[in-house]
Amino acid sequence: MIQNRYVITMYILLASLLLPGGASAQDSAKLKVVASFSILGDFAKNVGGDRIELATLVGPDGDAHVYSPTPADGRRIAEAKLVLVNGLKLEGWMGRLVKSAGSKAPLVETAKGIPPLAEPAGRDRAAPGVDPHAWQDVANARTYVTNIRDALIAADPDGRAAYAANAAAYLSQLGVLDAEIRAAVARIPADRRRIITSHDAFAYFEKAYGLDFVAPQGVSTETEASAKDVARIIVQIQREKIPAVFFENISDPRLMERIAKETGARIGERVYSDALSGPGGPAATYIDMMRHNIKAFSTALSS
Fold first, then answer.
1. CATH homologous superfamily for 23-118+128-177?
2. Number of separate helices (H) and strands (E) present in the chain
3. Which of these, 20, 60, 189, 270, has the minimum number of CB atoms within 10 Å of its CB?
4. How far is CA 224 from CA 217, 231, 235, 237, in A?
5. Of the candidates 234, 232, 271, the residue with the CA atom closest to the CA atom of residue 133
6. Considering the entire predicted model, what is its pTM?
7. What are the structural domain ranges in the chain?
8. Does residue 176 contact residue 194 with C-beta atoms inside 8 Å?
C-alpha cells in the first residue's frame, strides 16, 4: 500500500510539472521579461528566443498611450527580472505601475540612443513634446534590438551567445526590410507621396523614407483633433487632390470617415502604427506590420 501511495504521489508531481499550467524546471529557469507593448514584445521575442519567458502588457491592437494597467500587470512586473519600455514618454503609466509593484528589476528604455523627433507644433497645445514612435524607421528598430540584446545579456550573462546570435539574425532581416521599403517608395510617383493618417505616428517613417504624412490628431491618441486642424486638412486634401486617407488599428475611424466623406478621398486599407495585429492578422509581427503598411500606402498612392 505504501509503495502504491508513493507511485501515485510521484505521478501527480510529475504531471503537475509537465501539464500546461505546471511550473516545469525548464520554465522556471527562463528569464522573466516584461515588455510594455506589442511591438516591443516582438523585438524581445526575436532576440530572447526560448531563453526568456515574455509577458507583454499592452497586447495586439492595444493603445499604449492611454493604457490602464491591471492587477495582473502588477504581478507580472513584480515577478520580472527585466522590464523593457519604449521611453520617449510613451508609457506615462509605467512609473506608477513599477512603484506600486515594488519591482527591483532593471527598467530599460529601448529607444535610448535614438535622436528623438519633436512633436509637431500648431495643435493648440502649450508646448510641443517628443514623438515616441521611433520604431517607424527600420534603422531605429535596429537600435531597439541592440539595446534589448545588451539588456538581456546583462540580466542573463550565460545566454550571451544565444542572444547575440538571435539579434544578428534578426538585424539581417531588418536590413532586408529597410531595402524593401525604400524600393517601394521609389516606385510611387513623387507628386503622389502624400498621406493622411488619423494621428501623428509616422514622422520617423516620413523622415527616413520620404513620404509626407499629415494627421488631424497629435502624436498621442489622448489628444483630440481640433476643428481647426480638421478644416485645414480637408482644404489640403481638396487642394492637393490627395487620393486616400488611412486610419490605424488603435484609432476611432469616425473622424477619418468624416474627412473622407467631405473630400471624396477614399479610405485606404487599415494600417498599423502603435500596435501589432492579432496572430491571424496582417501585422502579427513588426516585419509583417511594416510590409503591410508600405503595401497599403503604395497601392493607394500609385493607382
1. Nitrogenase molybdenum iron protein domain (3.40.50.1980)
2. 11, 10
3. 20
4. 6, 14, 19, 20
5. 271
6. 0.82
7. 23-118+128-177, 181-302
8. no
Measure the CA angle with vertex 66, ends 80 and 138; round to 5°. 70
DSSP strands (E only) in 38-90: 52-58, 82-85
Nearest to 185 by CA among 98, 293, 262, 95: 293
Place of cell 492595444: 62
C-alpha cell of residue 225: 483633433
Q: In 3-state terms, what secondary structure has residue 120?
A: coil
Cα 230 to the chain's mean position, in Å? Answer: 26
Task: Cell 509637431: give the residue.
Answer: 120
Which region, left, alpha or beta, applies to residue 149 given φ > 0 means left and ψ of -120 to 50 means alpha?
A: alpha
245: number of Cβ within 10 Å: 25
Q: What is the pLDDT of residues 48-79, one digit of tens each?
A: 999 999 999 999 999 998 899 999 999 999 99
Q: Do domains 23-118+128-177 and 181-302 have the same CATH topology?
A: yes
The pLDDT averaged over each successive group of 10 residues in the chain (303 residues) is 41 39 60 98 98 97 92 97 97 95 96 91 58 97 98 98 98 98 95 79 94 63 60 74 70 66 74 94 97 93 77
Distances (CA, A) of 299 to 187, 271, 286: 11, 12, 20
Cell numbers describing residue 268? 485606404
Q: Which CATH code is given to the segment(s) 181-302?
A: 3.40.50.1980
